[in-house]
Amino acid sequence: MYLTKEEEKIMDGERGEQYGKMMRILVKMGEIFNAERLIPVSSAQISGVSYRTIGDAGIHFLKSLRGVKVSVPATLNPIAFDSEHLKDLKVDKEFYEKQMEILNAYTDMGIKPTMTCTPYYFDNVPKFGEHIAWAESSAVIYANSIIGARTNREGSVSALASAIIGKTPEYGMHVDENRKATHLIEVNFEMSPEDYPLLGLHVGKEVNGIPYLRIIGDEDDFKLMGAAMAASGSISMYHVENFTPEFRHALGDNVERIIVERGDLEKYRGEEIEVELVAIGCPHVSSSELRKIAEFLKGKKKKRGVELWIFGARSTIEKNEDAVKIINDFGGKVMRDTCVVVSNAGKIYQRIGTNSGKAALYLRKERFGGAEVIVRDLFTLLRSVVE
Ligand code: F3S
Predict the structure, then answer these.
(1) Cβ-based neighbours of 60, under 8 Å, separated by 6 or more
(2) Which of 263, 327, 357, 377 is most exposed, with the fewest beta carbons within 10 Å of its own?
(3) Domain 5-176 sits in which CATH superfamily?
(4) How many whole angstroms from 60 Cα to the centroid of ligand 1?
(5) How far is the CA of 284 from the centre of ligand 1 (A)?
């Protein structure tokens, strides 16, 4: 791989061993994926932030980077709690302190404590064609597909290395020809709102490449679909005909055709149960989702025995104060900085309803609580919390 003199010097430790180590990580990745060079990135999104997911080994790694600073704007994934809801989330003192140690290590490096997986709404908004280095698969697939920015599915360490060095190896989604569709997905039925996350889970399992879908929907539908797709498989980009910015040149002759029948989605929905928790906001809610929820709940009374938790970015919550007040008055909880997967929610509740295929996939796993989870559309879920 070609390296400039400057890059070689950094790799050899001229700026210090820690920078050298970060450069070596990027170069190694570039060699593995046959990149010809490193290219500048305009931002990074860092994952591996919740103490529940990175544990003490993560703290140890972050400590080894003390004193290092990022060189491009970088934002942070959710942590394990919202500090205003420590009791609800059953956070004890030791857990709290460990989490804060992680958070402080990142902010000391100059990373913005956004604590959201939807930085693309307000905190870190890439432009079409911009090269970025993002971790968090739901944000990666959104950035590539809906915005047309360019990022591979970085891991927490490679995204951090890119944030520090300001570069990434040029391969994968950074290269035009790799952004073309490999599969054409024909959906054989009329989509209902609950089908987007289910379709995402199914396509993620079936496709190892870039799907091109002939469906209609809006940004919120496709956000849920993309997050599920990325979580159940290795997809980092999709095209939707007449919707996503690169669909026009995406289809070639050699695409594999996959037909999806309604029955294909059934196994992901989960059998009807009385839920204890309805969790919305995986990925974090958009302003339009928050407003829809508030409009629906306005003047209604919450049913006893079921909780409504909504997860969003601080920035989204601050910009929609009125909607948040309506939800709080109803008895729902709007939480920031965390989410249903990386917090203790899955350990506290064993019967959960969500409109997120990604959340369902994780929460059903033993490691995240092994809960019974049903995937339903937003309004069906909201109706289930209203008296
Ligand atoms: Fe975001 Fe947590 Fe879901 S980080 S995509 S809300 S698992």
Answers:
(1) none
(2) 263
(3) Aconitase, domain 3 (3.30.499.10)
(4) 24
(5) 7
Q: How many CB atoms lie within 10 A of CB 303?
A: 14
Amino acid at 162: S
Q: Where are the alpha helices (DSSP H) in the chain?
A: 5-11, 17-32, 51-63, 93-108, 137-142, 156-165, 195-206, 219-232, 262-269, 287-297, 314-319, 321-330, 345-348, 357-363, 378-383
Instruction: Count other C-beta atoms under 10 Å from residue 319's C-beta.
Output: 15
Residue 252 has a pLDDT of: 87
Q: Which amino acid is at 26?
A: L
Give residue 151's pLDDT band: very low, low, confident or very high (50, 70, 90): very high
| Fold match flag (5-176 vs 270-383) | yes
Please give the Cα distance from 292 to 296 (Å, whole number). Answer: 6
The residue whose CA has the least distance to atom 3 of ligand 1 is: 282
What is the pLDDT at residue 221? Answer: 98
Alpha helices (H) along 39-194: 51-63, 93-108, 137-142, 156-165
Instruction: Please check the confidence at residue 174 and state whether its pLDDT lies above 90.
Output: yes
Around ligand 1, the residues with Cβ closer than 6 Å are 77-78, 117, 138, 227, 282-284, 311, 339, 341-342, 358-359
Count other Cβ atoms within 10 Å, centred on residue 245: 13
Residue-range domain boundaries for the chain: 5-176, 180-268, 270-383
Cα 338 to Cα 88: distance, rounded to the nearest angstrom: 12
Q: In this structure, which CATH number among 3.20.20.390, 3.30.420.40, 3.40.50.2000, 3.30.499.10 belongs to the domain 270-383?
A: 3.30.499.10
In percent, the amount of the chain with pLDDT more than 90 equals 99
